[in-house]
Amino acid sequence: MELSLARVDYLQVGVTAQKTMRLLPASGRKATQKVVVGDQDGVVTCFGIKKGEAVPVFKTLPGKKIARLELGGALNTPQEKIFVAAGSEVRGFTKRGKQFLTFETNLTESIKAMYVHISGADLFLCASYIYNHYCDCKDQHYYLSGDKINDVLCLPVDKVNCITPVLACQDRVLRVLQGSDLLYEVDVSGPATVLALNNGNGGDSGEEVVYGTSDGKLGLIQITGAKPIPKWEIGNEKKRGGILCIDNFDILGDGVKELLVGRDDGVLEIYNFESADDPVLRYDHALSESIASIQGGCVGKDGYDEILASTYSGWLTGLTTEPVHREGGSGEELKLSQEMQSKISSLRSELEHLQMKVHQEREKYQQSSQSSTAVLSVPAFSVNDKFTLNKDDASYSLVLEVQTAIDNVLVQSDVPVDLLDVDKNSAVVSFSSCDSEPNSNFLLATYRCQANTTRLELKIRSIEGQYGTLQAYVTPRIQPKTCQVHQYQIKPLSLHQRTHSIDQDRPLNTLMLKGQFSFAEIHSWVVFCLPEVPEKTPAGESVTFYFQNTFLGTQLESTYRKGEGCFKSDNISTISILKDVLSKEATKRKINLNISYDVNEESVRHTLKLIHPKLEYQQLLAKKVHLIDALRELQVHEGNVDFLLPKYRSILEEADQLLEEYKRQPAHLERLYGMITDLFIDKFKFKGTNVKTKVPLLLEILDGCDQDGLIAFFEAA
């Protein structure tokens, strides 16, 4: 059965956070459902749809930003009590809008995630690192997580016979709890951002949990009492955005619930289970901004199911199974189209009225601004930003999303970075020349956006060892012109990503630190050096983190405690960068460090063997690209290229793909040359020898691209 859905935009509220929109249970089997949504102005809005128009049921007064909205109710009754989390408080409303609960928690931070158990008495709340379980508003259990908590849920008690909360954490781990204790950890392939019970009830066993990650992967895990059982995981082959929301709903009407997924790049997906194994992507639809919440139900018209999504800027958009009728069909279709005509004319008159009102207010503003007593008020606007490292191409993705249209974004960096092409980006970029010497200004680029662009994605590649700040100046299309500055740290080992384990059989170099420093101090140095390390000092006396370099595939193990730190890597340049930065940080705090290191000669050869295939590929790509113009000229003059060797003919055939790839990765070859040069200098730096005079000779050997010759040069020098 082919799925055909029509888009309907119902209503716009304020800016919404993740998981803040739900559908209230319907009174009849195919009756329409009311929509309840909470926004960042603190307003809870409940409305229904009649004749295509939004009819309000209730609306609360503004307050603190609403971080989560859940439904609850007594066991075996409709789940129609509305719970909202704002700040450190949870409020409860009936479906008519009467407030029946105000619960001020003992949390010192704002609530980030909330789950209301089906019993209605159990409340699970999470701040950044803290989990709390309340029963009838009384504190029951508490847990301090090792990294930030993004989402929480609890397995259904009626199926598993015990309270089993599951936390989705930023360090690529799902933590399964029992009371206040950790039962076990489940390693997943990316930072989990959202959790949902499979099929809405945890499956037959009640133990099945679907998770979505910030790098766009989707998976199912069975959480048993003893150990986790991974069922399936879908990678992000299409390079789509991270997953923000998941729901289960039978939109196909075949008796099996489909999986509904909303992503932060605005893509809405429907997966169905054709076989008992992995889900298959059945339908997708692109909205222009991130999807904060997704629900399946019956909203617009009796008897027609639909998928409702709330976006970042507060739009509530439906994809309905109700067919869209065109002018000039049967009598019913004609009647529908007349209904549409009257709707269009009422919208036109409303628009004219609004334009007149805006014109009057603008004139009033212009007159009042001439006055000497006038005070200029700066319009506030929300920016949703995300700065993450992509494992696939070792680049940083900077996503900026604004509640109104973006006029331009200025990007400035005090460290050398490359801006890479993004296919989805329609903005016009222009570079300004900048003086890198006195001001440490290495990049000035302006992105001018087209009308109605509310989301901009940039790709940046940094150089390890060079660290500083990247700044984005965001200017939306609002009057008077205002700008927000957002800062992002480029860390010394910026291309490293957290991983669950490393290969201990590789040849490793070791860096040992000893000195009069506390656990918190050395942890703050590691946070300064490496991405994805929690800012909060870990519990316990010592900690170990594992990392992988996304560009080269080399590894790093860092273990440290009070007064002692040990760092192991198969790349000597990583150890060299750590040694320099940690020494500088300790000197700033007047701490005397005793540094010792153990260099493994075999590690240099190992790193060169990891780099060489990439070097060979990039050199071949560069050579092919340089030949394209000459070959195309030959093709024009000769008219026929059959006389060319097959390898040259294939270059002509693939010319567009080759140019596209070369354009997408500027300075890739220079980066590899730079890494090999750094490796050469670092190898001899640990021996106390300066080999910078031999670098020109090294570059000549690199042009020849001979692996054995390169290794021989490193060993002979």
From TrEMBL:
<dbReference type="Pfam" id="PF23361">
    <property type="entry name" value="BBS7_pf"/>
</dbReference>
<dbReference type="Pfam" id="PF23360">
    <property type="entry name" value="BBS7_GAE"/>
</dbReference>
<keyword id="KW-0175">Coiled coil</keyword>
<dbReference type="InterPro" id="IPR036322">
    <property type="entry name" value="WD40_repeat_dom_sf"/>
</dbReference>
<feature type="domain" description="BBS7 platform">
    <location>
        <begin position="496"/>
        <end position="598"/>
    </location>
</feature>
<feature type="coiled-coil region">
    <location>
        <begin position="337"/>
        <end position="364"/>
    </location>
</feature>
<dbReference type="GO" id="GO:0005930">
    <property type="term" value="C:axoneme"/>
</dbReference>
<dbReference type="GO" id="GO:0016020">
    <property type="term" value="C:membrane"/>
</dbReference>
<dbReference type="GO" id="GO:1905515">
    <property type="term" value="P:non-motile cilium assembly"/>
</dbReference>
<dbReference type="InterPro" id="IPR016575">
    <property type="entry name" value="Bardet-Biedl_syndrome_7_prot"/>
</dbReference>
<feature type="domain" description="BBS7 beta-propeller">
    <location>
        <begin position="21"/>
        <end position="321"/>
    </location>
</feature>
<dbReference type="GO" id="GO:0008104">
    <property type="term" value="P:intracellular protein localization"/>
</dbReference>
<dbReference type="GO" id="GO:0034464">
    <property type="term" value="C:BBSome"/>
</dbReference>
<dbReference type="Pfam" id="PF23743">
    <property type="entry name" value="Beta-prop_BBS7"/>
</dbReference>
<dbReference type="InterPro" id="IPR056335">
    <property type="entry name" value="BBS7_hairpin"/>
</dbReference>
<dbReference type="Pfam" id="PF23349">
    <property type="entry name" value="BBS7_hp"/>
</dbReference>
<protein>
    <submittedName>
        <fullName>BBS7 protein</fullName>
    </submittedName>
</protein>
<dbReference type="InterPro" id="IPR056333">
    <property type="entry name" value="BBS7_pf_dom"/>
</dbReference>
<feature type="domain" description="BBS7 helical hairpin">
    <location>
        <begin position="601"/>
        <end position="714"/>
    </location>
</feature>
<dbReference type="InterPro" id="IPR056334">
    <property type="entry name" value="BBS7_GAE_dom"/>
</dbReference>
<dbReference type="GO" id="GO:0043005">
    <property type="term" value="C:neuron projection"/>
</dbReference>
<feature type="domain" description="BBS7 GAE">
    <location>
        <begin position="379"/>
        <end position="488"/>
    </location>
</feature>
<dbReference type="GO" id="GO:0036064">
    <property type="term" value="C:ciliary basal body"/>
</dbReference>
<dbReference type="InterPro" id="IPR056332">
    <property type="entry name" value="Beta-prop_BBS7"/>
</dbReference>
